[in-house]
Amino acid sequence: xxxxxxxxxxxxxxxxxxxxxxxxxxxxxxxxxxxxxxxxxxxxxxxxxxxxxxxxxxxxxxxxxxxxxxxxxxxxxxxxxxxxxxxxxxxxxxxxxxxxxxxxxxxxxxxxxxxxxxxxxxxxxxxxxxxxxxxxxxxxxxxxxxxxxxxxxxxxxxxxxxxxxxxxxxxxxxxxxxxxxxxxxxxxxxxxxxxxxxxxxxxxxxxxxxxxxxxxxxxxxxxxxxxxxxxxxxxxxxxxxxxxxxxxxxxxxxxxxxxxxxxxxxxxxxxxxxxxxxxxxxxxxxxxxxxxxxxxxxxxxxxxxxxxxxxxxxxxxxxxxxxxxxxxxxxxxxxxxxxxxxxxxxxxxxxxxxxxxxxxxxxxxxxxxxxxxxxxxxxxxxxxxxxxxxxxxxxxxxxxxxxxxxxxxxxxxxxxxxxxxxxxxxxxxxxxxxxxxxxxxxxxxxxxxxxxxxxxxxxxxxxxxxxxxxxxxxxxxxxxxxxxxxxxxxxxxxxxxxxxxxxxxxxxxxxxxxxxxxxxxxxxxxxxxxxxxxxxxxxxxxxxxxxxxxxxxxxxxxxxxxxxxxxxxxxxxxxxxxxxxxxxxxxxxxxxxxxxxxxxxxxxxxxxxxxxxxxxxxxxxxxxxxxxxxxxxxxxxxxxxxxxxxxxxxxxxxxxxxxxxxxxxxxxxxxxxxxxxxxxxxxxxxxxxxxxxxxxxxxxxxxxxxxxxxxxxxxxxxxxxxxxxxxxxxxxxxxxxxxxxxxxxxxxxxxxxxxxxxxxxxxxxxxxxxxxxx
Length: 774
Fold this sequence. Notes:
3 domains
């Protein structure tokens, strides 16, 4: 027997295993599971095993969902949706509140079940995941109550298909189901093949609280089940998972008009400045990449350390790493649990081997028996090394150094992902400067992996689009107010003989980089009132290049941009009669109003500070999207053009615009207005020509970050598929009267921005809270 004096010498922890008997009794009482459809469990069929990754023990057998199972679940959700949406906000809130209370009552069962099925340490399931599940349900009970007053005119989408990963099985379920139900939608959810058990336990809770049948449906299965859900008759797909699968879903939904939210992979930077608290930063690494086996899409897996402190930081990091305990996930003293499946373990080891083969040095990170890998990191690693570019999704980080803050930002942004990032510095000025410059949807300052239902979470670039949490998450489950379409203006061309030089305006040019230019090849095509330049793929490329060089526009700030928009309004008003002769008096008046309207908004579309955890200042900032491609409506060419361009540039974006195909000359004349209004070159670029071809070139361009389509025709399939290459969001804008009030407002500003959530710790935190924790 070990003596107390010996324990005091070694400070070794003894085993402290969580009692799993209640969870095992629950599993034994079921044995095999069917799907949860229309308020009841189906008979198990075509089952497959789900295993404890720590022991390979079979925990239960669950059913493999088929096309018919998905169809039945969607039909049940469709039938239940009108009744659910017709409930008052208070009634929906009471159901969500009941779900939250029942989750809290079953915290121990759910946390043990999650650890058994996923392999993560019980401390994470018990102290982080399940409490956050309850938090999301409570938070969205409030949104159910406030939906109509906070989002007037909005309506639920209908039936939402939701596909979640295996790293946070129950938390991801709550992230998706809670806002969907609060908004008035019904759902069909497919949990990950590896980790379906807590979703099935949640289904049982839905029964116990009397949730109306069909409001929540859960169908288990592998990727083929998920593909069947994507192909089914749902109104939205919300997916969390790999970038490759997300890109495939975007292509599958191309042209369908169904809403899509993607929360995909990440390769998040973890930036340690020279003045950082190194001990705290090391704990941040532990919390961000090691305590959860690195199985977090936003893990700070790319550690970037100031060269001056790198040796000391690495000494501290290795000492801390060597003391971490890898072992049984149900042991409360375990730091690092099991990898979810042997397939995932093999993938992690394969990437590590490729990284070492390309010159990196692996410190730690050795495989152990079963589904375990010791924590480690790759050092002396080049930027193009596979370990630096690929999402490892395991307890292996990379470590690189930098000399200046600019170099740190450059390295942080040297990735195709943009999900999250972490900045460590004792200077608030330095930290917030880096937070603003790192391209990611969420930034933690002197912290890592903080989440809350009130704080929007989501990425940019190949980390996806859309947000989960807060008001932004609710809006992603709501349809905007309906608009009244206006009859199209005839598109006939006034001049029928292009060779008649006396009747054709041959002076029209493209507008690229602040200058009027002939199109590539000099070709023209007949339009109403004359000839217009026939833009080409090369012209689109030149326009995007000009837009990318106009970055100072965003740096001017809202006040500076407002002055330019007011100037545009003044100069357009001075030429109102001239433009009215090309379009109509109503269009010109609407165009002038738009300029004044968005000039007013330029410095007033504010961010918000949300109430999350005490001691954490959480700010949600609307950032410009970047370069927005816009295809304008064919009718009302002047009002339609400015109704789309002005909100985009008011928020700091630059734009490449394809104006009305049949009547672009009034828009081409705007180049003179822009030139005399101090609009910097490259902010607005105009390429005329056939919208079908030019839109495809623009949507496919990697530097274009979003695409708005208000052009002729309703078939968006090719555009959506082209945009899926770099996962840019496409906004299909319904036809409307572009001279009316429905052609302006905050909806346009929301689409012109993407939200960045910044977490900043403040005050004296309670002892033991770390500051680098969830």
